[in-house]
Write a structure and sequence with these properties.
- This protein is mainly beta and 158 residues long.
- The chain is globular and about 50 Å long.
- 7% of the residues lie in helices and 37% in strands.
- The longest helix has 11 residues.
- The protein starts with 13 loop residues before the first strand and ends in a 14-residue tail after the last strand.
- The protein has 2 domains: 50 residues, no CATH class; 73 residues, no CATH class.
Length: 158
Amino acid sequence: MTDPEGVTATAPNLVADTGACCARPNICDCGHPPEPVPPGGGATGYATWSPTGETLCYPCADQRQREELRTAQRAVVYLSDGQMHVTTWTGGLLGRVTRSWLGSTRCDTLSGPWRMRYVHVTDVHGGRWHGQGSDAWQAIVLHRTTRRRVRRSSGNHR
């Protein structure tokens, strides 16, 4: 079978991906076509859902990640918009950063000086999260905030 671009398909729903190591779906398992691949590569145009191996278009993968936030206890997200929002890898909005700060400078022999970024986040469903990641990277690991920590001021309490 040949698609309109003249690429031979290995199965009815797969199209050989030029320059890639494996076949690219013509239609993802979600029923939508993958996103166009930018010139020069760098993306596949679809996401693979790791628990099941399903292929999803980016909007469906973003929606699935938003739904997972309802029950997840941990999430890997990416800082965007000047570190004001957290998103999926493809840029789908997951939440708003409500607090962000940097830890003290650390140094190691391999990477030199670096700082840890700490964040508090409110997700699109109103859930509260806290997390951290290196300031050199956009990825942040979030953990669900299960109870509110009460900060006690110094002084006499009765």
